[in-house]
């Protein structure tokens, strides 16, 4: 297997081959490969519904693709398998690829479906955390070694919160949930598109939310990365994939009930329909793409992410934003 | 006071995978206080079983056993056993093996106080200088002698010995016979002694019990008419040779002695 | 086997009570377990422990029953991984143990590697395995194998080395190869140790498979637990854990039966005390 | 000990070479390990395996050296958890094993619970422990204890039951309580089994502590690994794993030394073959 | 052709925790083909050690051992050993224990073919009906007899026996002596026989080797002048009693025989 480990070329995103497009019809050229794999960064959750919708409603097929959507185990591991070429495309947040590129991984972000961060601090309404300063004198649980944990000190600093008055509890995710639900801690760092609806359903009341994106801590999630070699060799396929996903997202957000039904059918053991519906509703709020296709990457968004990461010491050698992402595979009407 | 024992029609059946084995049937025997009783009999006739029942290590299937008149079901405090197989503890030196019963019954302090006696005993069986050796560094006969020392150090009221001299040469064996006689005379304990040597049995005993083959039962009890103390001359007494040949003939009538 | 009574010193004092004690042994154990669950049930009720912290046994059992179909199908997946992984573990572990027993050099060279593998949590190794072997069955089998084979090797080595010198001499006096000596003497002599290792190993293999499912899977009890956890469906999480425990007991029981069947001579030679 | 020569069948053919072989045993093992690292180094270089997949041994070692201060301080934290957890494990496991040996009832009642604990991955149990016992030291100690005590119990039970009937009879003939019988006969007789269990247990305790650190901690090698992972600092991740392995080997070696020291009589009675 | 053995000034030093033990010093002995040699000597004098060296289970510290003139360092194919301690395999039935050497040397098929012979042997030592029992279901003497059968079934050229009849009663012992003589006569094997019974040694042997105490060495070799075949009358020959008392007196001059 050592051969498998040998990496592929290590080139920045901007130098990738461009897809061929028929100038008259706007149609993307023939796909170089039809069978590709997409590795999600976790087991099914609501935000992944559009990928399954694309499969079930034939959007991939429409673009001549056969995409195998596979569940995964965390962004880091997705990045590694994509970098290594085991998987063609993968889903991560924007944070890990930013680090990965610095580590020399041959990957590029080609789309991000949340142009606003789902990272939030939730709190019980009887001890609400509405602004960062509300954290003083409170305790907050966060997943150990998560992105949030890493940027949290900088967040406090930027917002002029006295860090010594905030009790930050680093625990594993399900322990974090238990601590918060059992009110052992006052607040919790979670994703609005994932845990929030679950918590609210469990507790039976609405939680107080504080979105980090409102404080210029906008770390986008749900980002598609591709292996550079793959993208360079198969630009049309990549473009067709994004085009299909554009339609799939649009369709999903317009037909949330149907998307929920599709999810429930695909994952009968893992889906709570009510929660998925809620998750999709929340996804709609942070997936705002006007006049650009779904997934279009805003450069300032990436730049902001890089600044936060650099400030938090997660990357040390920031390169040009273009080294990390490309919008080359989108077709603007 | 030492021990008088009464075995009442004891029977013993072993349950095995391949069916029952009747090892003993109606073994009836009384052992007077302070007496020396030897048991002889063909291999596999149940001698060890009798001894294990007396020791309380095996329950008789039928019959009962009385000590000083009282029913005896549990352990006998004042008893020491020399097993047919010398069960030495591999993780203890020779000296510690000998002192094992003392340590375990009376604690470390008493053990310390008994070291001299143990050394004395070991010396008397020819094992001086081997106190610090481990069992695996001994020869077969040496191990057996250690096991004998381990029994004697307990100052028992009842001493049960299962072929204790089997692995010893004639000289050592004779030496130990004299030692045993001297001790039983001094401390007045009761001895049950299993042996294959008819001469040994006659020489040592107040009573020789002859057992028959499976299922084991007692064919004859032969009280000794030999005078005490026994010594080198005892063997030359006509009673001695007489008793030896009596027992030999009992064996012969039972056994089959074929020549090539 | 039926000569049990002879082994027990304590029983001898009251040989008549033996029969009475014999029967309810396993029943009593059952009662104890039931008592344990009762206390748990009462605790959750009286202390009002919320369901997402610790569901009551009743809610777990009802969930186990209502989802039995689901649990069974996932359990079969897990069981298959455990079976394959453990088989692999045995077929690597035993030869490795033999190699270690016969070669001090190999012992010195292999032990550090084995210990290293053993000391690194499977949850750390799992992602690396995923990168090398993908998200498929292989990874889970390897995890079940890796986690279970240390106890097997260690116990096998101890067992193979525990042959009495006397017996070894017997083998040598017959003039057989060390190879046959191994099969006819060392191996049967090591069986009690081996079974000790197998009992520990087989239960660990369950853990390995489940950890594998945490990391890479779309089926199996580990997967089920993970997704239930994400939904905060704590009763289902516990129902999964319960099923896992059941699998473990089944495997352990099977090993114990096998042990009795292969070593009928063993207990008769040993003073197993209360048995 | 020096009577080694007698045990080895193979050696007898060329008794003169014994001396020559004796010395380099551990050296050879060292060479093998070095060879292993060499192959690894060459592979990463020749196949151009990127650092984020598998760092080269040199980069790991330089990292271990340059971060030795950091690694050591975290290692001490982990070691403390392991030590406490394992001590707890022994002090619960051995009495439990004794209880199981002496009471069929307890055996029946306890085994299911033990197996259940053993079969459920620590990563599943950990969050519950965090909620019950907080995110402090207790949780990690408990995890180290929980994970390591099954092999200890199983091996101890097997060991305690392995007393020869003859020896048990000897104890009974002296007329001692079963209690003393246990300490003077069963326990020393069970030592080889016990040490087998302890060797497996102590390395598992390392895993338990690290898993505990994964779940809740601000120090320790588990924590260090997680943060390094979050930073995609793969060489540091491997440096941490290397330190873990080192801890495991140290503990294992300590147990082995203890074993030789406590059971000097053992190897002399056994045909340990090549040793 | 059977085996002639030559022990050349063999010395043996055991290394123990508490220092060296000189077990043998200058043991010089030749064993003619087809002869029956007995070794007698006090317990712990090194008889077992000599046997283990002949068997190749122990390396001499000094000296060498030659078989049919050739240096002998390794295992002897055509040899069978009866150990002082009957090493039966607890996990095999009596029959399987006896057949163990056959199975291990020649495979299952040959084992099957040898079952009858094994049954015959077991019957001849009085163990008919015990074939399916396990060792722990036997008495001490029965186990010893199983071990003897296990040696004899190998049809050895060289038979080494270390106190094989120690746990047997006089009758069984005599029976087995006759059987052994008959077999060695039929199959013409060489026998080295360790015993504590001087009578037994004289009765059986072509040569009796008398060893002295630690460090063990050979004090005297006594070739037998008794006629063959030996039978019940042999014991009555004056040479028999003469030799027995010669050996006894050698012992007496060495040993210390104290009376209470
Ligand atoms: N493995 C060993 N380690 C150390 N010393 C030993 C070992 N085996 C035997 N010895 C010593 O060597 C001497 C001779 O022992 P050996 O077993 O040969 O005697 P033996 O003549 O067979 O005695 P016995 O008639 O009692 O069986 C004894 O002093 C014994 O202590
Ligand atoms: N644990 C057991 N299980 C089954 N049968 C047994 C057991 N112990 C002894 N026996 C049988 O009981 C009978 C008597 O055995 P025991 O050991 O008492 O004989 P013994 O007279 O001491 O013989 P030896 O002189 O050979 O030692 C034998 O037939 C033996 O097979
Ligand atoms: Mg007997
Ligand atoms: Mg001997």
From TrEMBL, chains B, E:
Signal peptide: none
UniProt xrefs under Pfam families: ABC_tran (PF00005)
Domain ABC transporter: residue ranges: 5-238
InterPro entries, per the entry: AAA+_ATPase (IPR003593), ABC_transporter-like_ATP-bd (IPR003439), ABC_transporter-like_CS (IPR017871), ABC_transporter_ATP-bind (IPR050166), P-loop_NTPase (IPR027417)
Top-level lineage group: Bacteria
GO molecular function annotations of the record: ATP binding
Alphabetically ordered keywords of this record: ATP-binding, Nucleotide-binding, Translocase, Transport
SUPFAM superfamilies named among the record's database cross-references: P-loop containing nucleoside triphosphate hydrolases
Protein name (record): ABC transporter ATP-binding protein
Lineage: Bacteria, Bacillati, Bacillota, Bacilli, Bacillales
Automatic annotation (TrEMBL), chains C, D:
Pfam families in UniProt: BPD_transp_1 (PF00528)
Protein family according to the UniProt entry: Belongs to the binding-protein-dependent transport system permease family.
Record carries keyword Secreted: no
Keywords assigned: Cell membrane, Membrane, Transmembrane, Transmembrane helix, Transport
TM region(s), chain numbering: 26-49, 82-102, 109-135, 141-163, 194-216, 236-258
Localization per Swiss-Prot or TrEMBL: Cell membrane
Membrane topology of the entry: Multi-pass membrane protein
The protein's name: ABC transporter permease
Domain ABC transmembrane type-1: 75-259
InterPro entries associated with the record: MetI-like (IPR000515), MetI-like_sf (IPR035906)
CDD domains reported for this sequence: TM_PBP2 (cd06261)
